[in-house]
Amino acid sequence: MALERDFFEFIYRRQVVWYRRFFLKEKPPWTKDDVLQKYKFCNVYRELDKGTAYIIDTLRHIRNRKKILLNVVFYRFFNKHLLYEALNIKPFSVFDTALEEALRKKMIALQKQGKTLFNDAYLIAGKQGEPKYLSVLQSVFFVGAHGDRIICELDHARIPYESLQAIKKIPLVGNFLAYEIWTDLTYFAFFKQKWTDDDFVNIGPGAVWGLEIIFQEKLSRKKQMEKIAYLHKKQKEVLPALSHQYAWAHISFKEALSNRPFLSLRNIEHALCEFRKYWNLSHGRGKKRKFYPIL
Predict the structure, then answer these.
(1) Higher pLDDT, 120 or 19
(2) From CA 54, how far away is CA 114, in angstroms rounded?
(3) Comparing C-alpha atoms, which of 30, 26, 15, 35 is closest to residue 280?
C-alpha cells in the first residue's frame, strides 16, 4: 500500500534528521524533505525527545520504586524540560505538606517572573476555581500519601491494561496522561511483571487518525489494534529496505529501551501521531508549528 510505505518513509526520514543532527553533528539542513525542514516533529523514538530524555537522565540512578513513581507522576503533570532545576529541587522521596507549600511558593515566584510552569504539548485540566498548579500539587500529594497502595495494585495487575487503570485512579490523570506515566515507568524497569513499552499500546486519537490515513478507512477499536500490530511487525521488513542514504541499522537509536533496532509498539503509536501531522502538512492542512533548531 502506498500510504503504508509513506508512513515508513516518514519514520526513516525523521530518524535521518536525528542521526545527522545529533550523531554526525552536521549543520542544517539535515534533510531535503521540505516539510521536515520547515516544521517541528517529535522524534520517532519517544526516548529521544528532549523532555523524555530529561526525566530518564534525572531518575536513572534511583532504585526506590515509590520515589520513581512519585517523581514520574510529578514530572509528567508539568512535562517541563529542566523542571527540577527551575524549582531548585532534586527528586524527592516524600511529598508532604511542607514540600507542597515550598513548591507552591516557588511556582508563584516563577509565574511572577513570567515563566511558564507547564509544557503546552498537552493540556492538564485543574480544578475549577483554583490555579492549575495547586490542583496538580494536590494530586502529587495523593501519590505521596497512597504510593504503597498504588504500587501494590500495579504489582497485582494481570495485564498491562489493568495497571493503566490503576494509574488513572490518581486525581486529574486521564487516559492520555496515564499512558505517558505508564510508559515512563517501563524505562526504569518498574513493573515486577517485566513489562516494556513493547508489550502494550493504548492508541490515542492522534494515532487513530494516523492509522485511518494509512489504511483509508474508519477503524473499529479491534481493527486499530490489528493494524498497529501489523505495522509493528512490518517495520522489520520495510525499514531496512528504505536505506536510501544510510542503513537503518546505522541510524536507529542503539539505546532504545526495547525492540532494538526497531520501534516498540509505543513508538509506533507515537510515530503515527507525528505521521498524521506530516501527512496533513504535506497536503496543505493542519496547524503549522515552524521549526527553529538551536544550533
Answers:
(1) 19
(2) 23
(3) 35
